[in-house]
Amino acid sequence: MNKKTGGDHLFDIVNGFVMVLLIIITIYPMYYVVIASITDPAEVMANTGMLLWPKSFSFVSYKLLFEYPMMFISYKNTIIYMLLGTFISLSLTTLGGYALSRTEVPGTKVIMVFIMFTMFFSGGLIPKFLLVQELNIIDTIWAIVLPGSLSTMNLIIMRTSFMGVPKSLAESARIDGAGDFIILFRIMLPLSLAILAVMTLFYAVSYWNDFFTAMIYLKTREKYPLQLLLREILVTNSTDELTVDMGNEKSLISQVIKYSTIVISTVPILCVYPFLQKYFTKGIMIGAVKG
Known about the structure:
Elements: H1 6-37, H2 41-46, H3 60-66, H4 69-101, H5 108-120, H6 125-134, H7 142-145, H8 152-163, H9 167-175, H10 180-188, H11 193-209, H12 212-217, H13 226-234, H14 250-289
Helix pairs in contact: 1-14, 3-14, 4-8, 4-11, 4-13, 8-14, 11-14, 13-14
């Protein structure tokens, strides 16, 4: 092995410094939000620099949020939307990807052209809204989970993954009398767990973070997802219902409530991600390279 030169050592030092700097820049905003959410509101408002550690702890913002009925209602709605939407999206992506991966079926290339066409051209928001309105699903759960239930990119990745499975496995199963559903659920899916994990993560995060769809199609406040409630608190500064009894401290508490709401809405996804991370890179590479 060649010995490292002075230039190599200098590159390692500079590279390490840049990486540490990037880590700090990436992590500090999240760290600040967490620390600010458990800090006394007066201290947060008085602080003008970096907040490294709270001088006095305060959980009043979390107390107010957990006593706020809409928080639990929106949390429940988001979980329902995410679970149902992810199930529908995974089902459509899996079935569509398998059907399009069967090159012996006539017309699959033409269908793929039409599907890929939607990646570059769309009817826009107004035609989509009119369609949802004509289907009579405005202000229902189906307006959240159906219009965007299938991602073209995810469908292409799933199709590419299925095409990477040796055809001899499917042919052997057909000789033994297996149909398409048996081949899909007993051969294709067990060999594509990495892709399924990635698709689950993509769809779950998408439904969890989505507020725009709910803002367009939902009218009843009790059907709002968590992210739409978060938008109310952060963008429209709607904290009056939470701070009605706080008196002179109302403006101070309302600022800290924003940080606490961000923490509450982000933690679940951060807890799920580590369990799927090991599949993430592998799944993406399978879908990107094969086919």
